[in-house]
Write a structure and sequence with these properties.
alpha/beta
């Protein structure tokens, strides 16, 4: 199904859906019950994490530029401090590994679907002197809940990855999280939500890898770990992650974010002891959608590397700091 969705996106296929004709009446009834429970709390407007991280590492080299795109999960909705947002956590971690400052620009928008990525990419690339070195995209949950056709969803993602790669930025995509882990969602909607989330995540992996990006599966990561600790890892609205939840997700993405910039000590050689493999991209995408923190990166077409990089602890949370005029590197 993921391969069909990706092919439909590439060749203009119309409306390959994720739910098919399965129990529409029951699903709609369950959805109304879920809506009464989800969002019962209040999710604060996400704080802006834009700014510089790792200023203590000095300025012998220009800062790494990082862009964050996507929906409310990418924006960090559900937390109140900028340092708790996934963008800030990743920027802090990247600065610690690279031992150089990181400038973060987060253009993610709560409620955004994949069709907003074009606007976000345009915003990031508006200044030719500030093209990001690397971008992280987390998107897809709202596509599922708003029933956007999967072919349209991945077509928008493919276009965004292609534009960023053409501009010279590396791209890491955190694929669609598993919506079946949301606590107030009951069966059979829970099963269907899990199924469609994973199908979309696999299709996202295929198109992102084909456009030269890497992906990290968030679906299974936000599954058993969130299910085991729902009170700790979900925020006050029972839908968005808490600060601990975002840190869990950031820990899974950070190794790939560093590896794509050649900063991670581990290479792209396969480690059989960690069930790493080289598979056809569609099979790699399907396998990644069901295992926590799995990275997929393109190899020789049509093959892809399936990696399970070792996670490391994130550095202490820090707030963004605006650079002092004397510290801003000059453009050459």
């Amino acid at each position: 199904m993921a391969r069909r969705i990706a092919a439909g996106a590439a060749y203009g296929g119309g409306s390959i859906g994720l739910l098919g004709a399965a129990g529409v009446g029951v699903v709609l009834a369950e959805l109304q019950l879920a809506k009464r429970s989800v969002g019962g709390g209040v999710a604060p407007v996400p704080p802006s994490g834009d700014g510089w991280y790792g200023l203590a590492y000095g300025h012998n080299e220009p800062p790494l530029r990082m862009g964050m795109l996507g929906d409310s999960t990418a924006a960090g909705q559900g937390v109140r401090r900028a340092g708790q947002t996934p963008g800030a956590l990743l920027a802090s971690g990247l600065a610690a590994v690279a031992e150089r400052p990181v400038e973060l620009r987060n253009v993610a928008l709560p409620g955004a679907q994949s069709d907003d990525l074009d606007r976000q990419v345009t915003q990031l690339l508006a200044d030719p002197a500030r093209v990001p070195d690397v971008c992280v995209i987390i998107v897809g949950a709202n596509d599922v809940t708003h029933r956007m056709p999967a072919t349209r969803s991945v077509r928008y993602l493919a276009a965004a990855v292609r534009r960023l790669r053409t501009a010279g930025a590396e791209v890491v995509v955190g694929t669609c999280p598993d919506l079946g882990t949301i606590e107030p969602v009951y069966q059979p909607l829970r099963w269907l939500a899990r199924r469609v989330s994973r199908q979309l995540a696999a299709a996202q992996t295929i198109v992102a890898v084909e456009q030269g990006g890497r992906t990290v599966s968030l679906g299974d990561l936000l599954g058993p770990e969130f299910a085991a600790n729902p009170r700790e890892l979900f925020g006050p609205d029972n839908y968005h992650p808490s600060a601990e939840g975002y840190a869990t997700a950031a820990m899974a993405v950070l190794p790939t974010l560093c590896a794509v910039l050649d900063l991670w000590p581990e290479t792209d050689h396969l480690d059989a002891s960690r069930d790493e493999d080289m598979l056809p991209v569609a099979k790699a995408a399907s396998a990644a959608a069901s295992r926590a923190g799995t990275e997929v990166t393109g190899a020789r077409a049509p093959w892809a590397l399936l990696k399970h990089r070792r996670r490391r602890s994130l550095p202490p949370q820090t707030e963004a700091a605006p650079p002092e005029p004397s510290q801003v590197p000059r453009e050459v």
